[in-house]
Amino acid sequence: MSASSDISSLFKLFGGRADQYQEISKESSDTASQRRWPVLSGGEPAAAAPVVAQAQPTVEPVAEPVQAAAPVEAQAEPEAVSAWSAAGLRSLLAKLGQEARTQVEEPAKPVVTTPKLDHIRILAVVSAKGGVGKSTLAANLAAALQRAGRPVLALDLDPQNALHHHFLSADEQQALGQRGIAHFDQDWREQGMSSAEGVFVLPHGLVEESQRRDFEAQLHNDPQWLARRLSDLQLAEGALVIIDTPPGPFIYLQQALSVANLALVVSLADAASYTALPMIDGLIKTHTAGRKSFVGTSYLINQVDNSRQLSRDITQIMQGLLGQQVVGTVHRDQSITEALAYNRNVLDYDPQGRGCHDILHCAQALVERLGSTARVEQPA
Ligand SMILES: Nc1ncnc2c1ncn2[C@@H]1O[C@H](COP(=O)(O)OP(=O)(O)OP(=O)(O)O)[C@@H](O)[C@H]1O
Ligand SMILES: [Mg+2]
Questions:
Q1: Which residues lie closer than 8 Å to 268 by C-beta, 6 or more apart?
Q2: What's the per-residue H, E or C state across 66-131?
Q3: Could you tell me where the beta strands, DSSP code E, fall in the chain?
Q4: How many whole angstroms separate alpha carbon 254 and alpha carbon 282?
Q5: 350 lines ligand 1 (CB under 6 A)
Q6: Please, what is the end-to-end C-alpha distance for the chain in angstroms?
Q7: pLDDT tens track for 178-192
Q8: Atom of ligand 1 at shortest distance to CA of 139?
Q9: Band of the pLDDT at 175, cuts 50, 70, 90?
Q10: What is the tens place of the pLDDT at every residue in 185-234?
Q11: Number of C-beta neighbours around residue 11 at 10 A
Q12: 138 CB less than 6 Å from ligand 1?
């Protein structure tokens, strides 16, 4: 029995007619769908494919040259394309896709402003070991440099809060109270005070232990904190900033070195200071690496005692090893200690003394290294 007689018998069984039979293929379903929703189909429905594939003559496929996809903007749009047509929809979808790509390609850049400090010179007084004379020398050098006619800011980055004792009288210290830079968000102009000789002194300030920890955490989180605060002060052109730091690898040292033009390492002429020099050298290298405004490291040998053979020998060895980097030596001088007891600098307290002479000599060498022509006059 043939297939057609089978179908006829089947239709008879259900009361139907075989001549109305139409086979439904997937292609004819797609065609019907395209006729119903032409806007989504991209054009006129294609002619329905025959249900049974007819034998086609064998033709070798011809390779078509592969065309690069034209960029969306380059596609010429027919002028009279309605937005509601299929072509209009494609065009709108293409534009949306292009906009999304543009947004991904060009993310909004955050505005980062680098603090401007080119107009001032910054000296960081540092050491690996404690008690070598950093605060004493920072204060006395500030007084000497101020005498040379430069506006000087003495900034205390050490939580010991000792620097202002070298400048301010007991009454001035009382008026100052607990003010200082450790009160994080305060205006620095209101945290400091001018000394009798005209140095603007910014103390560290006294803070509770928990406040100190918070302050240090803020310094850790904001490496440009000091740069920004100094920039905000709008110091006069050519002003000098001298920063006193605590000994060792603290965040304060890191902040000071992040802005310094010159690092001044203070060392005693003893074995302990000598062996600690590589440590501070490494810290300076780490925290100034690659910054063009950092001109280098200088060394000051303090409390040299010519009556002791060891002090003389270590001074000589350090001078031999460090050469031109040594800006000078400051001899042990009781006047330097006494001056502090009267809240005065040694230049005032004992202008003819050895200590005063040494400090003025070192100040002159530092001025030259910081690129200034100002002269630091020796007393007559
Ligand atoms: N050239 C000097 N002659 C005599 N005494 C000095 C000299 N330099 C510093 N001193 C004394 O040495 C002591 C320590 O000095 P200072 O406090 O300045 O050291 P420091 O390095 O700042 O200490 P710290 O690391 O604790 O901050 C002080 O009593 C000071 O008067
Ligand atoms: Mg100190």
A1: 129, 132, 133, 301, 302, 303
A2: CCCCCCHHHCCCCCCCCCCCHHHHHHHHHHHHHHHHHHHHCCCCCCCCCCCCCCCEEEEEECCCCC
A3: 121-126, 152-156, 193-194, 200-202, 240-244, 262-268, 296-304, 326-331
A4: 12
A5: no
A6: 138
A7: 899 998 778 898 899
A8: 18
A9: confident
A10: 788 988 999 999 899 999 999 889 999 999 999 999 999 999 999 999 99
A11: 14
A12: no
Query: Is the distance from the beta carbon of residue 231 to the nearest atom of ligand 1 less than 6 Å?
Result: no
Rounded CA-CA distance 374/234 in Å is 21
Sign of CA dihedral 37, 41, 44, 46: negative
Q: According to the model, what pLDDT value does residue 95 have?
A: 74
The β-bridge partners of 136 are none
> Which tokens in the block code for residue 318?
């350090």
Q: What are phi and psi of 218, to 5 degrees?
A: -65, -40
Contact of 31 with 45, CB cutoff 8 Å: yes
User: Which ligand minimizes its atom distance to the CA of 131?
Assistant: 1
Question: What's the rounded Cα separation, in Å, for the pair 80 and 84?
Answer: 11
Q: Which domains does the chain have, with CATH numbers?
A: 121-369 (3.40.50.300)
